[in-house]
Structures are given as structure tokens and as C-alpha cells.
Design a protein that fits this description.
Layout: H1 2-8, E1 25-27, E2 42-44, H2 55-62, H3 81-84, E3 87-97, H4 98-109, E4 118-121, E5 129-132, E6 137-155, E7 158-174, H5 183-190
Antiparallel strand pairs: 1-2, 3-7, 4-5, 6-7
């Protein structure tokens, strides 16, 4: 999407070297499938002499209307955005069977009192390891509880009706190249 939009806007992108050159476009903290965001940080490398004041026009003319341009900054030769990232804020909705809702809400409200929270982090091509998650959670707050709601839940044996509740959570987690906690790993550990 971004490569195509910049190409349409005739942005003189820099390309990697080698057998299969690709444009130098990188997202600071790419989201997993199923997540949406209010803002994404993207880093592009362009040839010297590009008029950066054209970026706003290029986004409005060459990108889908759902992709809104907010602002840009020229950083010159520096560390990558990913290496400068420290935290990300998330708003999560945790859907649970009604029977577990009170226990889960209590766990979230008393998160600071937990002495430890661990999970097994799976890595491609590497050995799974147990990770302490608590230091990677900078803030966690239960915003509201909704429910019960009658929903159909898909199980291996078919769809069944289930009373569910939704816990709305605001959380700030480590994000970046040095320490990174994905929301789904935190939710798995809390479950």
C-alpha cells in the first residue's frame, strides 16, 4: 500500500542494495493481524533534494481516504524509528464467559499488587522461553465492563450460545527493538 502510494506520488524512494532491491520503508512497530490503530509511525528514505512539503499532497491524492496523513519530520541519518520506540498504548476488549468476568475484572483492578506475571514466549527458530511480563507493563487500567451479552461462540465441535462479558482495558506496554510485549501475550498470561 505505502510503496504503491509513494510510487504514484513520484516520491524518489531509496532502495536496498542487492539481488532483489526494495524501497526503504519501515514501520516503527507494525501491528499484528486483527489490530487497528489511531496512528502508525513510518520511516521512509528518499533521495536528496526531495521537497518534503509535498508529503501531505501525496497522501491526499495517492492513498486511500482511510489513510490520513498527520505530520512528518526530517531526521537525517539517525537510529531507526523501531530502535527509538519505548512504549505503545493499547485499548483492548477482553471477551470472556460471564462466569469468569468478576474474577478477571478483579485481577485487572489489582494488577499492581501482583508480585509476578510470567508467560512462555514462542520464537520462530529459537527455543521457547519463560518471560517475566510485569516490568514490561507500564500502566494497566480496567476502563469499563459490559455484559452479559448472549453470543455464539465457535468451538471445535460447533457453535454454541454463551453468556459473555467484555472488559475494556487501557494498557501501556514496552514496544521497540530492545523489549517488546505484544498485547495477546499479556492477555494469554492473564487468562
Amino acid at each position: 500500500l505505502f510503496e504503491r502510494g509513494f510510487r504514484r506520488g513520484q516520491v524518489p524512494l531509496m532502495f536496498s542494495q542487492g539481488f532483489n532491491p526494495h524501497p526503504k520503508i519501515a514501520f516503527a512497530a507494525p501491528l499484528s493481524v486483527g489490530y487497528s490503530s489511531e496512528a502508525e509511525l513510518v520511516e521512509i528514505e528518499v533521495e536528496t533534494g526531495f521537497d518534503d512539503q509535498q508529503i501531505s499532497r501525496i497522501f491526499s491524492e495517492c492513498f486511500p481516504s482511510e489513510i490520513a496523513y498527520r505530520r512528518h519530520r526530517i531526521v537525517g541519518a539517525s537510529k531507526s524509528l523501531m530502535s527509538m520506540m519505548r512504549t505503545s498504548d493499547y485499548e483492548l476488549v477482553w471477551s470472556l464467559p460471564e462466569a469468569y468476568c468478576q474474577r478477571a475484572a478483579s485481577l485487572l483492578e489489582n494488577f499492581e499488587a501482583l508480585s509476578s506475571l510470567t508467560a512462555i514466549k514462542k520464537s520462530k527458530g529459537k527455543k521457547d522461553k519463560t518471560v517475566e511480563l510485569k516490568p514490561m507493563v507500564h500502566a494497566l487500567k480496567l476502563i469499563k465492563t459490559e455484559g452479559p451479552v448472549n453470543r455464539k461462540v465457535v468451538t471445535p465441535t460447533g457453535a454454541i450460545a454463551s453468556e459473555q462479558c467484555d472488559l475494556h482495558i487501557a494498557v501501556t506496554l514496552n514496544a521497540g527493538s530492545e523489549s517488546n510485549l505484544k498485547p495477546d501475550l499479556l492477555m494469554d498470561a492473564l487468562a
